[in-house]
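Q: I have 189 residues here and want to know how they pack in 3D. Can you give me a structure?
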Amino acid sequence: MKKSFFLYLKTAVLAVGNKIRQRILYAGVHFPAHVQIGPGILWGCRQNIFIGEGTNIERFCRIAGGTPGRVSIGRNCHIASSVVIRSFAGNVEIGDHVLVNYGCILLGNGGIEIGADTKLAPYCVLAANNHRFDNPDIPIREQGCSSRGIKIGKDVWLGAHCTVLDGVHIGDGAVIGAGAVVAKDIPPF
């Protein structure tokens, strides 16, 4: 009886300590009480990051809002280890029940919208930005960028190692094969 009481007390103290640790380490990030956040997360522009109820973010992710861009992760999402999400000047909007698997990179300068129930397999890259290279007499770094944004519908599955380029819209229910480079719009289903 005495042993079980102390075990209960230890568990309660650890749970409260974890919540306090989260509030201190993640100060500025907007999230409700029922969010699981692993260790080693690097946050940027915390005031522009919003995380929905029941979401799980595993360790070693890099999540950065921008100025003025924001990152908004819906309810009951799973962000696996080593994911990079950066909004830059655009917004990254992730719907409810979305899986972003290991090693995915989401660069949202032109904005990224991911619909509910979508799954990104490991190592997908969504780059909502493109360097201009029209004039061969000017270095590419001096020609600027274009940012049209990426929209992914609901219940979409992107296979492992997919790359989705700026300006692409993928319709609801689409399945993109592993290793694909998506450079044009994909219709629903």
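Q: Anything worth noting?
A: Residues 125 and 133 are 21 Å apart (CA to CA). The helical segments are 2-25.
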